[in-house]
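Write out this protein's structure.
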Amino acid sequence: LSRERLAERGFNQALLLARRSGADEKIRTDLLLRVLHTPAQSQLTRAQRLRNLRASFAVDPLKTSEIKGRHVLLIDDVMTTGATLQTAALRLKQAGALEVRALVLARTA
């Protein structure tokens, strides 16, 4: 979640879900960074979403050693096209994650 979107919403819904998982000691919000605020994606096609997100995520270069060879679980509230999760997973794999899986609360049609 970008700083702008967090300020707009007042909470990070994915972080709230992750905390409810009971794995507080494993939650990391400092490895995958949202470095670019993008417009809301609700009215975009999958191709437009992928373009919109292309440069929006990065792995903290000082923390790649904490990702290399690890299994990572991304948690999100809603998946529509999967573009956000795909882009985030790609960045984590590029940083050396062995496997990236996703857990979402809801899926839109």
